[in-house]
Design brief:
three-stranded antiparallel sheet; alpha+beta; disordered C terminus; elongated; three-stranded mixed sheet; 6 helices
């Protein structure tokens, strides 16, 4: 004899989700609103970071373009500096006594002086100027010490001879001045000492 089952016995037991009451529509909307506000805040933050990053890239590119404009002549200037050096050597090779009474030597020397002056003026138009060295304290950022010279009249570490003129282009060193530095003179006060280990 078969047992008959009642409808209560044949239906499965309710699950936990079915047993819990459905959330109120207001709670669902509040939760959804909170999610959306968090998403908006996150997107705003991303937009601000992206905008800041774009601004930084723009500034960096502008700086690079400005530097290219300022320093583009640097390599050309280095090559031209040897011409300026040779003009100076030519002028230094003519003793003042040789110019007196010799019109040809005097005229030639004046022409070389004018050429040198014009070249230095042209270099200066592009921000290239000589490094001050003679009589100044040795600065490893601007000078390259080639030797030390005994000189009791100068404070120790003073540039007493320039073997090759140095140049800067705007705020950068184009070529260091090759110098001789004094030794044996009075010591420099501690506050004025520079590192000469260049």
């Amino acid at each position: 004899m078969s047992e008959t089952q009642t409808p209560e016995q044949t239906s499965p037991a309710p699950t936990e989700a079915e047993a819990a009451p459905a959330p109120a529509p207001e709670t669902v909307q509040a939760d959804r609103l909170a999610e959306l506000e968090a998403e908006v805040a996150r997107l705003k933050s991303e937009v601000l970071y992206a905008r800041a990053d774009t601004e930084n890239v723009r500034r960096r590119l502008e700086q690079q373009a400005e530097d290219r404009g300022k320093y583009a002549v640097g390599q050309f200037a280095k090559d031209v500096l040897s011409v300026a050096d040779n003009l100076r050597r030519a002028l230094d090779a003519v003793p003042p006594a040789a110019r007196e009474g010799n019109d040809i030597a005097n005229t030639l020397t004046v022409g070389v002086e004018l050429t040198e002056r014009e070249m230095l003026t042209a270099l200066e138009r592009y921000g290239i100027r000589p490094v001050q060295a003679l009589g100044t304290r040795f600065d490893p950022n601007l000078h390259q010490a080639m030797m030390e010279m005994e000189d009791l009249t100068q404070p120790e570490g003073t540039v007493v001879m320039v073997m090759q003129q140095g140049y800067q282009i705007h705020d950068r060193l184009l070529r260091p001045a090759l110098v001789a530095v004094s030794k044996g003179g009075p010591k420099t006060p501690p506050g004025e000492q520079l590192d000469t280990n260049a």
